[in-house]
Each structure stands twice: as structure tokens, then as C-alpha cells.
């Protein structure tokens, strides 16, 4: 395990250079112990945390509408004083509040959820109300969005130059009387002294080279800007900081690994790797040869390899991984391949058994479902070193699984594992090489952000033996035509996948279940051999069915998404995905990757079970337009956001509070460049002008030691 790099000076600092910034939130004027306890539950420990809790929007007085000039259908924000309030009884009771701004009166109406408001919206309270204007015996807004204002920011309702911050709020905030009004009262005094009480931790050279304003100015204008442009400029500076400190952390982690120089070179002539290449029925692509060269150079260095291998479906990652693994096997050491599911482990075992056969290597499979006796037998093979290549699920991480000499760790579908899990396997060896694989093409911005400490290899070319895949989406009225095509495909010897989103039909779902679909298809195609696989089928039976399909002993394979990463049957040229509108874009692309594994044209039909939503329709259109995994990944990232796209919580990395990866993508590379340049000149951040920087890094990341300890 890499020792945690010592941040900053080796001499402990008795107190912060930023006394206001690092002040415990309890001692901020207006907070106190009770409110501090609420804030702690929300992750706010210091004044800095409070000041970095930015407004979610602003009320710009220059855009406030006058009640006397309202028109029906307008979406507006008005500011006024409550003149009257009351509950109107009837078939459906409602709360009505009359708002006036001196130019007219406006009714605000609530038909639900108004009891809490009834206690708050008293006569004389000053409100900002937003919504769409309707007309019924006068102008009104139904269920408006509200902000309660206070005297200091409402003393002149005609004033046009002030921008009022509106903060994120919920029941917890309101219970502590820290809604927008309460937060403004607390934050305003802190902001007023920002120029003298807060010192910028970013060195002046970094700010100048990346045209970023000072920290005091940014904090002040993020909360109380004079214009919307000021607010955005301040937000961008604080978003830059989030990227910068994350990249600084990744750079320090990588530097700590490189500094140790305690890896070992893989001493092999590459004879076994050449045997595998010679046995392949096709030639490696230029991309595969390039990536294998990059990995081999890492293996022969005494610097531990830390590399991300990404490539689209069908780009040949497994072959590349096998050629890396066999080099350590030839050198007499072991390689462990960690995968997230038993089905994927079984399929990798099946594939690698074929690939490694020319070298006389039989991979050992270790999963949670094998019997206790068989598990002990396989653990002995691993402990003795007789097992050179080991494939397994989380079972590899458990106590009792000891390696004789672990030379390399390969992790597939990295986003399914956390940093701590990855480290647990790495720690079973002596600084083993690490190769991380993903079948999800990762947009450059994401790769830099979440894998910034890794070298990256990209398989950007597909083997020439792979055919073209055409995709179309169809409704239920096309089902019989599709069944006719399945019948014709079988006559030509083409195999067909039919994929369902569920195993069994549930009363709560109208989706077609795999088991019901299987029975219906057996009746519809009595002359065809139909198989069924899903997660509840026993492992032995599932593998046997997939093997029969691979060899052409089945014509149609009915399945759930267990085949998403699965059987590479060259004769499979047709796939029908039922209820395609319910699948994610990345999942649809992975499923489609099961066909087109042989020459000729393949067809993927996306069957709709219901009218697709706007987002679902966009997913389907992208699938039909392109087979480019990187274009699909960019769209998927935009539709889902980075957290869901990549499972970023699994990384152990903090979630961004201010930065938005898509919106602020342009900031990632400059922040990374600045962080790595600083670390190159001052690896331990001990220089005098880096003391504040180190202190802020500690404030943000001290609790996340796994980020530095992960090797």
C-alpha cells in the first residue's frame, strides 16, 4: 500500500492561516450550538462550508414585474407586501393571499399543502412570488414559488439595482430557521469582511494564468452579486477550485506511487503471448497492437502500472487483457481478474480458457456460489501458485484468499467497484501492476476528472471481421413482420437474440417477461430450437445453454440483460429488444454489441411496449443513427449526468457541490494543468506560497484518506 503522502509542511500547524474561513460553524455569528448541529447533519462544519453553499438562484430587481402591468399568461416574479390572507372554505378549501406592491393587487392561491404557509404568510410579510399569471375575477398565480424577504433587502420595492440570493432549502433548513431569509442574515456579515478576513489559497500565478478572480471577490459576488454576470464569474472561479483540488489529489496519489519505485519488471520474452496471437483466427488491429505495446512497456518497468483500458463493444479488450495476463504467467507470477457479477465471471472464464489454451494455462474461477469444498480446493491452487490466472467476483476480496505471487490485477467494469475494494485486491500482492477495463467509452472530460491518476489506453478501432449493424425501432403493429424475419433468419442459419427487461411478469409491471416470452416463442416457432437464460437459471445450465447457442445448436436465445457482456456468437445477426424504451442508452448499446460479431450485416430491432417519453425517444434516435460508442457515451452523459453515467460514488471521490461536469467541462483541463504543474515544482506542497493551498487541501480531503492510499 502506498503510504499517505504528507500534505504540506512536516511541522504541524497549531492554527489556521485562515481563521475566519476555517472557523467552526458553531462560532459563526447567528448560528450557535443548536443550529450548528443541524448544519453538521448537512455536511457543513466550517464557515467555509457555509460560504460555499451557494444560492440556487437570484432575484434580480431589474427583472421584477409590477403587479399593475401584469398580463395573463406571463411567467413573472413579483415582489410585494402581504395585505390580506385567509382560508376560503368550500368543496376544496384553499389559502388565498393578497399581495400588493403599490401598483396593484395580486392573488396567490394554494389548493394543497397550505397549512404550513398559513402560519408563515402573515400580514405585512414581504414576499417574492414566481409563477404564471392567470385571470379569474382578477389576476392570480396558482401555487407560486415563494421567497420571504426581510427589511434590509426590501426597504425600497422600486429599487432596480439589487440582486437577492435564494438558497437551497428544505424542511431541515427551515426547522433551524435557516431558510433563505435566515441564511442571508448569517452570511451577509461574513461577506462584508471578506476582503480582509479571507485570504486566497490559489497562488497568484495560477489565478493570472487562468484569468480567475480572487477568492474574497468570488465569495462576495457569489452571494451578493451586483449583476448576473458577476454571479456567474464568481461561480466559475469556485467550480474551478473544485476541479483543481480533485486533480491535485489524483496527482498526489500518482506521484506517491511513482516516487516509491517499488514495482518490479515482468521478466518475460513474450513467447506465450506470441503463441496466443498466432493461434487467433484473425489479425490484431492496429489499435490492439498499439495498446499492447503501451501495456508491455509498463510491465517491463519497475514502476507499477496504473492504466485504464477503454474501448467500445467489440473492440477486443479481452484479447488485450489476455496478452497482458499471460506475460506475468510466463514470468511465473499470478494475475487476478476481478469482475462485478458471477455471470460476467463465468463468461470471462469461458473466453480466457479458449484464448490461453495454446500456453497450457487453465484459468481458475472463484465465485460465491461454488461449494465450500470446491472453494477450498481452488483457494489451495491460488495459494500454492499453481493457479496462474484467477477470475472471480467479490469472493476474491474475502479473507482466506491468499495469492502465492500476485503480479497483476485486472479490474473489469471499474465503475462497479469502489476505491477501497480495488485496493483490497491490490494489497494481496506486492505492488502489483493494475489494469482497469471498461466497456463504456468515457468522454475525455470524465476520464480526466475521475481517472486523472491513470495512464489511458483507448481501443478506437474495431476488428475488420466484424460486420455492420443496422438499428431500427418499431411498434407492436410490426411484430408479425419481425417474426417472419426471425423465421427467414433461421432458414439462413442466422441466430437471433430476443432480450426482455424482466425475468417473470409482475402484477406491477406491463413489461414482457423472459419466461412468458420464451413459452410464447416456443409455440410461435415450433420448428426452431429456442433457449432461455436469465439470472435465476443455475450457473451450469446457463453456461450450457449459451454454449449451445454459440455452436449453433440453438436458433433463438431468449434472455434478460445477462447477455449484455456475453456470448460472442459470430452467427448471431438479429437482436430484438423488447420494451426498448425502458432501457438506458449505454445498456442498449452494450446489448447491441452482442451481434455483428461475424461478417455481413446484422439487424437490431428496438421494440416499443409503450409511447416513449421525450428522453426515451432521444435515446432510441441516437441508437438508430450511430454505432459510435463515444458519441453514444456523450449523449448518455448529457441525459443522465456523470453520477449515474459512471457510478461516481464508487470512486470514493467527492461529489461536486458547485461544479457541473457538463456545464463546466471547459474548466477541467486548465484545472488539471495547474494542479500537476504545482505538484511538479513542489511535490510535498512545502513552499511558503503553497501553505494556504495545502491547508485548504487538508480541509477538503483529510477525511478521504483512501484517495491517497489507493494504489
Protein described:
This protein is of the alpha/beta class. Among the domains are: 19-56 and 167-196; 65-166, Nucleic acid-binding proteins (OB fold (Dihydrolipoamide Acetyltransferase, E2P)), CATH 2.40.50; 271-301 and 314-438, P-loop containing nucleotide triphosphate hydrolases (Rossmann fold); 476-608, P-loop containing nucleotide triphosphate hydrolases (Rossmann fold, 3-Layer(aba) Sandwich). The chain is built from 26 helices and 21 strands. The strands form 4 sheets. It has a 7-stranded parallel β-sheet, with helices on both faces. Helix 10 (271-279) packs antiparallel against helix 12. The longest helix has 33 residues, at 228-260. Mean pLDDT is 85; it is low at 1-14 and 152-161.
Keywords:
Rossmann fold; 7-stranded parallel sheet; globular; single chain; 21 strands; 711 residues; 26 helices; alpha/beta; OB fold (Dihydrolipoamide Acetyltransferase, E2P); 6-stranded parallel sheet
Amino acid at each position: 500500500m502506498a503510504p499517505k503522502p504528507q500534505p504540506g509542511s512536516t511541522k504541524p500547524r497549531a492554527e489556521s492561516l485562515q481563521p475566519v474561513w476555517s472557523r467552526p460553524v458553531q462560532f459563526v455569528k447567528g448560528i450557535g450550538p443548536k443550529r450548528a448541529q443541524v448544519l453538521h447533519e448537512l455536511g457543513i462544519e466550517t464557515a467555509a462550508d457555509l460560504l460555499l453553499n451557494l444560492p440556487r438562484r437570484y432575484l434580480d430587481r431589474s427583472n421584477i414585474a409590477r403587479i399593475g402591468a401584469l398580463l395573463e399568461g406571463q411567467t413573472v416574479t413579483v415582489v410585494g407586501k402581504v395585505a390580506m390572507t385567509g382560508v376560503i372554505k368550500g368543496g376544496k378549501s384553499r389559502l388565498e393571499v393578497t399581495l400588493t406592491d403599490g401598483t396593484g393587487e395580486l392573488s396567490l392561491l394554494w389548493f394543497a399543502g397550505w397549512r404550513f404557509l398559513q402560519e408563515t404568510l402573515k400580514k405585512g410579510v414581504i414576499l417574492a412570488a414566481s409563477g404564471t399569471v392567470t385571470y379569474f375575477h382578477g389576476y392570480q398565480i396558482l401555487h407560486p414559488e415563494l421567497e420571504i424577504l426581510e427589511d434590509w433587502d426590501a426597504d425600497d420595492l422600486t429599487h432596480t439595482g439589487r440582486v437577492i440570493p435564494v438558497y437551497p432549502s428544505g424542511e431541515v433548513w427551515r426547522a433551524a430557521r435557516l431558510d433563505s431569509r435566515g441564511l442571508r442574515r448569517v452570511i451577509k456579515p461574513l461577506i462584508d469582511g471578506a476582503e480582509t478576513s479571507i485570504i486566497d489559497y490559489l497562488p497568484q500565478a495560477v489565478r493570472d494564468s487562468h484569468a480567475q478572480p480572487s477568492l474574497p471577490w468570488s465569495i462576495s459576488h457569489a452571494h451578493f452579486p451586483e449583476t448576473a454576470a458577476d454571479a456567474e464569474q464568481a461561480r466559475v472561479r469556485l467550480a474551478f477550485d473544485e476541479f483543481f483540488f480533485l486533480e491535485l489529489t489524483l496527482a498526489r496519489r500518482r506521484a506517491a506511487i511513482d516516487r516509491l519505485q517499488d514495482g518490479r519488471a515482468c521478466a518475460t520474452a513474450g513467447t506465450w503471448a506470441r503463441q496466443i496471437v498466432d493461434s487467433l483466427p484473425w489479425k490484431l488491429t492496429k489499435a490492439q497492437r498499439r495498446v499492447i505495446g503501451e501495456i508491455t512497456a509498463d510491465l517491463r518497468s519497475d514502476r507499477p502500472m496504473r492504466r485504464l483500458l477503454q474501448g467500445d463493444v467489440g473492440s477486443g479488450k479481452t484479447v488485450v487483457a489476455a496478452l497482458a495476463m499471460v506475460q506475468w504467467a510466463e514470468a511465473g507470477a499470478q494475475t487476478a481478474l476481478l469482475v462485478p457479477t458471477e455471470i460476467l465471471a463465468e463468461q470471462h472464464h469461458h473466453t480466457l480458457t479458449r484464448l490461453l489454451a495454446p500456453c497450457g494455462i487453465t484459468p481458475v474461477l472463484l465465485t460465491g456460489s461454488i461449494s465450500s469444498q470446491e472453494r477450498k480446493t481452488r483457494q489451495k491452487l491460488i495459494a500454492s501458485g499453481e493457479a496462474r490466472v484467477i477470475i472471480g467476483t467479490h469472493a476474491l476480496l474475502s479473507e482466506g484468499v491468499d495469492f502465492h505471487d500476485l503480479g497483476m490485477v485486472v479490474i473489469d467494469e471499474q465503475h462497479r467497484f469502489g476505491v477501497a475494494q480495488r485496493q483490497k485486491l491490490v494489497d494481496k500482492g506486492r505492488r502489483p501492476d493494475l489494469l482497469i477495463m471498461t466497456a463504456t467509452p468515457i468522454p475525455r472530460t470524465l476520464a480526466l476528472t475521475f481517472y486523472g491518476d491513470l495512464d489511458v489506453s483507448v481501443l478506437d478501432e474495431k476488428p475488420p471481421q466484424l460486420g455492420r449493424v443496422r438499428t431500427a425501432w418499431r411498434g407492436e403493429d410490426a411484430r408479425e413482420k419481425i417474426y417472419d424475419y426471425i423465421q427467414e433468419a433461421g432458414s439462413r442459419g442466422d441466430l437471433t437474440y430476443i432480450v426482455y427487461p424482466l425475468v417473470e411478469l409482475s402484477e406491477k409491471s406491463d413489461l414482457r417477461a423472459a419466461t412468458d416470452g420464451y413459452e410464447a416463442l416456443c409455440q410461435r416457432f415450433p420448428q426452431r430450437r429456442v433457449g432461455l437464460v436469465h439470472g435465476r437459471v443455475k450457473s451450469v445450465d446457463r453456461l450450457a445453454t449459451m454454449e449451445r447457442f454459440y455452436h449453433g445448436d440453438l436458433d433463438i436465445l431468449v434472455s434478460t440483460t445477462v447477455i449484455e457482456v456475453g456470448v460472442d456468437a459470430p452467427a448471431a445477426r438479429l437482436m430484438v429488444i423488447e420494451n426498448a424504451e425502458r432501457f438506458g442508452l449505454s445498456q442498449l448499446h452494450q446489448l447491441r454489441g452482442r451481434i455483428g460479431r461475424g461478417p455481413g450485416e446484422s439487424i437490431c430491432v428496438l421494440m416499443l411496449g409503450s409511447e416513449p417519453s421525450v428522453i426515451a425517444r432521444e435515446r432510441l434516435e441516437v441508437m438508430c443513427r450511430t454505432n459510435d460508442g463515444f458519441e453514444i457515451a456523450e449523449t448518455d452523459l448529457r441525459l443522465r449526468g456523470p453520477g449515474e453515467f459512471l457510478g461516481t460514488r464508487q470512486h470514493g471521490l467527492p461529489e461536486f457541490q458547485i461544479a457541473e461536469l457538463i456545464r463546466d467541462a471547459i474548466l477541467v483541463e486548465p484545472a488539471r494543468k495547474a494542479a500537476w504543474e504545482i505538484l511538479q515544482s513542489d511535490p510535498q506542497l512545502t513552499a511558503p506560497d503553497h501553505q494556504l493551498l495545502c491547508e485548504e487541501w487538508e480541509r477538503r480531503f483529510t477525511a478521504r484518506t483512501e484517495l491517497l492510499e489507493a494504489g
